[in-house]
Design brief:
single chain, alpha/beta, seven-stranded mixed sheet, three-stranded parallel sheet, 13 helices, 12 strands, 45% helix, globular
Length: 352
Amino acid sequence: MKKTLFVLVTIAALASLIISCGPPAKPKIGLSFSDFATERWPRERDEMSKLLKAAGYDVLVQEANHDAKLQNDQVKNMVTQGAKVIIAVAEDGDSLATAVDEVAKKGVKVLAYDRLIKSPNIAAYVSFDNVDVGRNQAKGVLAAMKQPPKGNIVLLGGSPTDNNAHLFRAGQMEVLQPLIDSGDLKVVADQWVDNWDAANAKKTMENILTATKGKFDAVVASNDGTALGALEAMRMKGLAGKVPISGQDATEAGCNSIARGELTVTILKDTRQLTPLACDLAVKLAKKDKDLGLTPFKLADLTLDNSKTGDVQCKFLQVSQVTKENLKQLVVDSGFQSYEGVYKDVKNAPAK
C-alpha cells in the first residue's frame, strides 16, 4: 500500500508540474507608437503585428497619445512584461532617449522607427531620406509658382519634438535659401505645428492669413495633415488651389486633395518597404544576429546638433515626389492607395 501510494503521489506531482509548466512562452517584441491619430500609424501597427506574429513572436502594443512621459513609462513596462526588442515611433526623440538608455543597460534592444531617438544606445534606426523629402517639397512648390519663382512664402514646419521635422526643414532650405538670399523669395511667416495636428495647422494658418492679409505666393508645409489643415483656412479666403502648397506621406486625403487641385505636391514614402525592414531587423536583434546590414551615421549629423556624440546604425529608403501628373501611376497603380479613395468626388478622373 505504501509503495502504491508513493507511486500515485509521484505521478500526481509530475502531472501537476507538466500542467503548470505548459508550452514554452513565445518571445516578445514591443511596439511603441507616439499616437494613432496620424493616418499611417494604425496601418503600420497592424502590418508589424501580422509579420511579427507570423515569425513566432508575441506582440505588445502601446500608444502614448502624444504624451512623451507616458511613452517612456510604457517602454519600461514592456520590458517588465518580457519584451527583449522594442520598435518605437518616438513622440519626442529627446525624451525617449532616457528610457532607451535605461533599458539598454538591461540588454533590451530598441529600434527607432521612422523618427530618430536621440541616443547612441538605440540598436538601429530605419527611416527614409528625410532631407530629400524636404528638398522635393520645396522643388514641387517652386515648380508650381509663376516662373521664375518670386514672391512671399510661408514655412509651415512639423512638430518641433520630431527630429524628422528639422531634417525636412534642412532639405527645404537647401532649395529655398539661394532664392531667399537673392531677394527673389521672402519668408513672411515661419511656424511649427505641435503634434503634426491638422487643427493646430488650421489655427496657425488663420493667424498667418491675418498677419499677412493673405499676401503670400506659396506654402511649404511639411506633411499632408498640416497642409490640409492650412488649406482649410486658406479655402475660406479663396486661396486653396491658387497658392501652391506641399505635403508629405501620400495619404489618401492628401492624394485626393491633389486630384481635386488643391494640394500641389506630396512625398511618397513607401512604408510597404519600411515596415518589413523594421520587423526583419527586430527578429534579427531578438536572435542576437550581428549581421544587420546597416550603415553607421554620426548622431551629430542625424540631429544637426554637434553636441551629440556616438554613432547609430541606420538604413534610409528613397522617396518620390507626387503631383497631379504622376498621382495615378505612383500611388494608385502601385497599390499604395485605392483608386476609389484618391479619386473620390473628382470630376474627369482618369480611367481606372
